[in-house]
Each structure stands twice: as structure tokens, then as C-alpha cells.
Amino acid sequence: MAERETGTGQSEAGRAPLPLGVPRVWRPGAKTVPLDRDEMLRYLGYHGQKIEPELAERIDAVAADAVTRTAPAGIWAVFPRGMAYDTPVKREHPVSANQTPVAAGHIALEGTALALTGRDVFRHLKDARYVAVLAVTLGMTSEQRLRVLSSQNPLEGAVFDAACSALVESAADALNCEIEAAAQAAGLSCNTRFSPGYGDLPLAVQPTVLATLNATRLCGITTTPTNLLMPTKSITAFVGLFEGDPHSSDAVRSCAGCRVASGCPFRARGTRCW
After folding, report:
1. Which of 211, 243, 244 is nearest to 227 (CA)?
2. Which of 13, 46, 121, 164 is 20 to 30 Å apart from 127, CA to CA?
3. Is pLDDT at 200 greater than 90 in this prediction?
4. How far apart are CA 175 and CA 181, in angstroms?
5. For residues 170 and 28, is the Cβ–Cβ distance under 8 A?
6. Mean pLDDT of 85-110
């Protein structure tokens, strides 16, 4: 007999339930978000040059300061919610995906106002049974420290900025692991994170993402008038949950929405920050 799905994402075979439609706040343990020093150096433009001991000591001191001043936090939820949390839902595919000859593609998550447009995100999520939406941030303390260092000591400001960039990616990876564990417990698999600004998914979706997760109240993440996240060391993303093997669009990130694209040192060297 086929397994029957419930509104909590639990099957009759006893698989663990998915927390459908319910935002879950994430606070990592002390060692859950390590600083990847190599990643930090890459953000600084390091590619094998000799680093004098005195400079290495300064870099390590600033990096240690960044770790102590960050307060990683996140929130995530899996959609759709269903008609009611404990009521059985219909067997129709809960991720609504459609593509017309005149549209680039459209992914709608049931129970939300989220409408994701673009060919890349369509390919990434169209076969997913559920979609996890996540947001993660390092908090305002690191943001304030970055502003102070950048004005008082540009070198230390640059190191601190690179350290925080590496830390927020590490935080996103850690939160992603929690989502993957929940999916695996429910008998599902995950594809990779897909963020606004990747491929042709516009940054204009950011305010709706935050509203869907209640991320401003729960994690303090807001957007600027140009749809950039504040604090700047914050990430939002979507992860597809699949029955069977996961699918991916193979889309790449875009520099289009980056606040420092016009003066980016990575682009000046003919490379990128990812």
C-alpha cells in the first residue's frame, strides 16, 4: 500500500515529520561555525604570496576578533504548509511550477507570497517536492565593528570584512546541514543552495523572503531600498527537497546585485568571490 502523506510531512511508514510552513530559529553551537582561514585569505586576494610573520600575526588577531564579535543566527522553513498543519494534504505536487512560452519560468510555494521567476531557479526547483527557505546572518555587532575598523584602519577593516565573509558562508553551510538532516529523516534528498542574485533570479524577491520567514523580527535582517541585505553579512537561499535523486540547475552566481561590483578587487584580477 502506498504511503500516505500528512500535513506535517510525515508518512505512514514512520518517517520523521518535516516542519511544514513553520519558521524555525537556528542558533549554532560555539564550534558549529568555524572560520575557514583559506577562504578568508581568498577573499583578501591571496594566491600563494609570501606573508611576513608580522602581517600573518595581525591577520590572525583580526580574524580572532571577528569570530568573537559575530553572533550567527538563522531561520528556515519548509513549504508548502498545507490546508492545516495536522490535516492530510492532497497528493498533487506541492511545489507549483509552470512555464509558458512568454515567461522565463515561475515557482510558487504554497502558503506563501513567494513567486520565484527565472529560468535558472525554475530548473533548480521545478521537480522538488518541497522547498526549504533559509536566512542566516552574523548580526549587527560585527557590522558595527566593521564600520569602525574600515574608517580607522583600512588594512584591519579589509581583513575583518574577509573574515566575516568566510564566517557567514560557514554559517550558511551549517544551517544547510540542519535542513539536509531534516530532509534525510523524512526520506528526502536535497540539492544545493540557490540565492537571490544567482543566475537570473532577481534580488527584488528579498523582501518577500524575509517576510515569509519573519526574519526581520526573529533575526534582525532587513533590506535596503535596492534589495540588499542588512546586516551585509547575511544570506538568503532556497533548497529543493526531492523524492529520489536531487536535481540542480547548474546556475552560477551573478555580480549584478553586489553592492561592491563596480570596485570589486576580484573582478579587477579577472576572477570572482566564489
Report:
1. 211
2. 13
3. no
4. 10
5. no
6. 55
59-63, 102-106, 208-212: lowest mean pLDDT where? 102-106
Cis peptide, bond prior to residue 231, ω within 30 of zero: yes
Q: Tell me the average pLDDT across 81-100.
A: 42
Q: Could you write out the three-class secondary structure of the chain?
A: CCCCCCCCCCCCCCCCCCCECCCEEECCCCCCCCCCHHHHHHHCCCCCCCCCHHHHHHHHHHHHHHHHHCCCEEEEEEECCCCCCCCCCCCCCCEEEECCCCCCCEEEECCCCCEEECHHHHHHHCCCCEEEEEEEECCHHHHHHHHHHHHHCHHHHHHHHHHHHHHHHHHHHHHHHHHHHHHHHCCCEECCCECCCECCCCHHHHHHHHHHHCHHHHHCCEECCCCCEECCCEEEEEEEEECCCCCCCCCCECCCCCCCHHHCHHHHCCCCCC
The confidence score (pLDDT) of residue 94 equals 61
Q: What are phi and psi of 144, to 5 degrees?
A: -65, -40
Cβ atoms of 99 and 36 within 8 Å: the answer is no
What grid cell was written down for 141?
Answer: 555587532
- The DSSP call for residue 241 is E
Alpha-carbon torsion angle 21, 103, 97, 137, nearest 10: -30
What 227-230 contacts at long range (C-beta under 8 Å, 24+ apart), as own/partner pairs, is 227/196, 227/203, 227/257, 228/203, 228/257, 228/259, 229/137, 230/143
Which cell numbers in the block locate residue 259?
Answer: 553592492
Q: Which is higher by pLDDT, 7 or 203?
A: 203
Type of residue numbered 185? A
The model carries a pTM of 0.81
